[in-house]
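To: structure desk
From: M.T.
Subject: fold request, one chain
Message: Could you run this one when you get a chance? Sequence is below, nothing fancy, just the single chain.
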Amino acid sequence: MSPADFLTRWQASGGAERANYVPFLHELTALLGVPPPDAVTDDPATDAYVLEKPVTFNDGAGKKSTGRIDLYKRGCFVLETKQGTSSPDEQQAADRAEAAALGHGPTANAKRRKGHALRGTAKWEQMMTQAYNQALGYVRALPPTEPRPPFVVVVDVGFCFDLYANFSGVPDAYVPFPDPRAARIRLDQLTAEPTRTLLGRLWTDPAALDPSRAAARVTRALAQRLAVLSAQLETAGHGSDVVAQFLMRCLFTMFAEDVALIPKGSFTRLLTDYVDDPDARQHLPDALQNLWQRMDTGGFSGELKARIRRFNGRLFHQATALPLNEPQIRLLLESARADWTTVEPAIFGTLLERALDPAERHRLGAHYTPRRYVERLVLPAVLTPLRAEWAAAQAASAQRAEEGDAKGAQQELVKFLRRLTSVRVLDPACGSGNFLYVTLEHLKRLEGEVLTALERMKVSGLLDLGGATTVSPRQLLGLELNPRAAAIADVVLRIGYLQWHLRTHGPTDLAEPLLDSFQNVQNRDALLDESPKIFESSSKLLDEGPKIFESSSNMLDDDPKISESSSKLLDEGPRFS
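Reply: Done. Structure tokens follow.
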């Protein structure tokens, strides 16, 4: 069946979801070029890809019940189906059918149910949200032997697919994929081959859809290149801090040209103009300095032959540039030709810090905290409570809508949006900002869900980047003793914020200056109170120190296993550090 024939056949479907979802999914797998579901066996443990996969719910009080996943593929997805209707007349017939089934009304025109809700209405959105929560319940009910699937898919048969992904491994941390605005795939989008390829990967290789994988490879390669250039510039006699500031301005400019904050490809062309001409190379520092001064203030740039928006921020204040030889310019050129829209800020800070620190440079390829480990702290600590508030706001909004109070339903969501944009998060030892960035990205994702829900209620115009009505780096606070790490954290947050916003909303809503001087990442000690009370407490602790050591000694003497474990831990200390 061709995509057009599939579309014609299923857009005309109606009736009960249970009557249609099985043939719909079988024909969908054929269209995507993936195998159809397997037959169910007598052993549920072997049923890795089946329709109607049974799971057991336990209410915690000994009462058990059975649910069935519409379509399950181990290690790939849990898929839940519903069916809405596109016709108000059909919906009225469906409502009459439901009333008749409950004994509340006549049976005229009620022979057949047409769908769960009228598509595009608040009731239909509520149906899709309930289906998502139902699918999450199935994920929680999977046996411990089953891996948590990276995707949850909600299907309105014959109309759309809603995609949710969780690559972190944190329970219930599913978010719209790839973002709230693009997470709903309409059936007519299946006529495009890239859409069919994307859906096909849910069946064959869902891990390949994790954007952080490709981003990690690009980011590591860039950091290696910058490490070489940093070492060369320091060998030429430039201070490491001067080199670090110079390279951070270069890399931000590379990012700016890739996301069209300055003309596309303009910085790359500027470097190309100077690399092959020995006489011109000596003037490159002047050209870079002039460009950065214009990025600081805004206005026409002779170097790029274009008007430049005002960036401001501390990054380009009194910016200076370093002289470069031909190989060094080529290293910058190779970095500029990379796709900076895919750089992963969640690891970029650590790698950049090591690239710019002579003492750490040898550890550039060593272990850093992977994104999924960062998410295992950030999601339960920050996002889980906020998502509980979001679920409550959605429920309150749905209740208002049921009561016919459309304005009240909107206000429930707006109230939560204000709450979200007022949250403050502090990392008192923020390093190069990786934990803060991951927090920012997930806050932006949640904000996107709220804005999408409001837009579906015909509410718009709430995204004002000039004020405080959007999640931004001003909400992320950091303290860091290392001045280089603190400066990198500031850049990481700015790049991450602009990356997310431009990918989701485009450049139109970005007010100047593009880089506000939030100064929310500070190079200082996290010890805020050096009052005598603290020293008094410390002194008291030291006075009673022998008791503590005596207690510890007794514990170790009494339990050889603990002593042995402690000794082993100390022996393996370098691995932990």
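Reply (cont.): The longest helix spans residues 371-402. Let me know if you need anything else for the meeting.
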